[in-house]
């Protein structure tokens, strides 16, 4: 890496911080020619941007993985329907409410109900569940993350009391989407779902895997461009990590290094966005979540599922669910965040995006 290229990338980082955007060509250069100096510069500027909007507060979400049944067959995912080795489970409403109660006691004010696309959880059952959580926890935010549904279904669940919805777009490039998913899945439909969600009034989260098979640096620029235009309230990104019982078992996993670099770029493009340091980032590298926060993230989502099912929601190999990833060890997370100068907030942690 020549000194000249280093200087150029640092100048691009500074311009990004000043203007909140770069041309696609400049973004590509910033990613392709990344180096220790540009990473350090982005980290500092993104940290400052995050501090201006959210201060040193880290928002927490209690993640309840309530079903690992899934009708989809995404090539990367460990709970794809074709994985016959996956041991399936489905939590009942009362078990989910029990997780929320535990979480509330611990200080969680957002519950994220995530699952595979499980047909048993039809509109009627999901609505019943959401109403029950809403009734018992009127001051908490409810986030759903159960994949693609019809607009009517999203409307019905919103009316029942859901505040937020997480649906990663996975990749903003159709041809790449088709490398990650079987032909029966549709890029256009996933994007339509995201537009519907935002339009209905959900605080909406999108995001992509970093270094998923076939992903180019141009594809990442397309992801950044899409997110800048879509203006989601939240963006979840994490490295692709291979799972031994999927078609992508031999594929190379993504790195924490590029993931945190992108976190900084995203923070500078969308300073108000809620940006989690994800479990995948923590799994890819020891201390990865701290690196994420230092690079501009401001959310973590500890696991609030019943201990007995955590190992069954195995999206990728070695997915962490113990230690500070476990909701019941919030003290460890507080310590971890405290050690780098951050404080865990007991707060819904709504987005400051203006929509
Ligand atoms: N069924 C829901 C939830 C999916 S799991 C939905 O479709 O939104 C949540 C996220 O985990 C996915 O969106 C995907 O980005 C991520 N994920 C799945 N498999 C992964 C893997 N092998 N490595 C890294 N992330 C993965």
From TrEMBL:
Binding site for (3R)-3-methyl-D-ornithine: 145
UniProt keyword Isomerase present: no
CDD domains (alphabetical): Radical_SAM (cd01335)
InterPro entries for this protein: Aldolase_TIM, Elp3/MiaA/NifB-like_rSAM, FeFe-hyd_HydE_rSAM, HydE/PylB-like, rSAM, rSAM_sf
Name of one Pfam family that matches: Radical_SAM
Residue numbers binding [4Fe-4S] cluster: 70, 74, 77
Transmembrane spans: none
Domain Radical SAM core: 56-278
Binding-site residues, S-adenosyl-L-methionine: 170, 190, 241
PROSITE patterns assigned to the protein according to its UniProt record, in alphabetical order: RADICAL_SAM
Cofactor binding, note field: Binds 1 [4Fe-4S] cluster. The cluster is coordinated with 3 cysteines and an exchangeable S-adenosyl-L-methionine.
One function term, GO molecular function aspect: metal ion binding
PANTHER family on file: 3-METHYLORNITHINE SYNTHASE, BIOTIN SYNTHASE
NCBIfam families membership: rSAM_HydE
Name of the protein described by the UniProt record: [FeFe] hydrogenase H-cluster radical SAM maturase HydE
Species whose genome carries this gene: Candidatus Lachnoclostridium pullistercoris
Species lineage: Bacteria, Bacillati, Bacillota, Clostridia, Lachnospirales
